[in-house]
Structure formats: C-alpha cells, structure tokens
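Hello support,

Our group uses your service weekly, and this is the first time we've seen a run hang past the timeout. The protein is Nitrogen fixation protein. I'm not sure whether the cause is the sequence or the server load. Input pasted verbatim:
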Amino acid sequence: MSTAERSETRTWCPSGKADAPEAVVLGVRSGQGGEVVYLADPVPARDVLPVVPKDVEPTRVLRFASHCVSNCLHRRGNDCTLVERVTATPADESRSVPRCHLRSHCKWWEQTGVDGCRRCPAVATTVVEGDDLGALVADPGTTREQLDAWIAADPAPARGADATGSRPA
Ligand code: SF4
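Update from on-call engineer: The timeout came from a worker crash unrelated to the input. Re-ran successfully.
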C-alpha cells in the first residue's frame, strides 16, 4: 500500500489495531530498549501477521497504524487524549524527529507535532508487566495530575504506553 493509496482526508492512529482491515505496519520494535524502528513504506498488516509466531502477540514486536475512529476510548471530541498523556511524559529534547511513512496522515502529528514524534518510538501498544508509567499513560482515566505526580516521584524517562483505543472485551 502506498501513501498515495490512503484516503487524503482520513487521520490514522500510530498505535492502532493490528486486526483492522486497513491496518499497516508502522515499524518494528527492534531499537534500543524495544524502541520502534520505522518502515520506509507501509506494509499491509494482513501480509505480516501470518508470519508472526502464534505464541507472540503481534503488538509486542510491531507497531501498527489504523484509522483514528470516533468511538475510540481515548477520544475526547476530535482530540486524542492518549497523545496528550504521551506528551506529558519526559522526552529527550535533543532527539531528532524520526522519519516515518505515516506523518501526513498521523493524528498525533496533527495534534502535537514534534512533541508526539519525539516520544513515539518509545510507545508500546501493549504494556509490558512492570511498566507502571506505560500503564498510567494507557489508561484513559488517568488525569494529568496523576501523571505529573508519578513522574515527579520517579523521574526516569518514559518507557512506553499501551496505546490502542481498544475497548476491553
Ligand atoms: S513519528 Fe510522529 S508522525 Fe510518525 S507515527 Fe509517530 S507521532 Fe506519527
């Protein structure tokens, strides 16, 4: 799928659902500390999912992009509250903005620009056990005050966030 094949008006979630019909692979969690290394071009998720071992959750090793949808748990009006929480976490300001194929359609870029992009590689769609900050960021009920208090108590750099708007089963 080329960028040109995407709807020009549609915004996309950079931590989307692997099983959405339109889902594409955004990147591979293979960098330092599991950070995302972005693909130069989108690859349909349906082409990749069959080769992920059955005992591996795809979002543990890959990040997917899918349509930003109005019934997402992280939506408030037209805004994404997830990226608000992501951008509340510490970031290395000297870090360059990654090159990625999603930018012209990305909800996080549209809403937060480089602030979201600087933190984007550290976001994990599925929170690993023990990643308390990631769990807080992923929780739509977390307030900015709660996040700020957690960060003030433990100023270690953000490790990631569970970041799909999937509703609990
Ligand atoms: S790097 Fe920026 S534009 Fe690319 S997916 Fe992440 S937030 Fe969106």
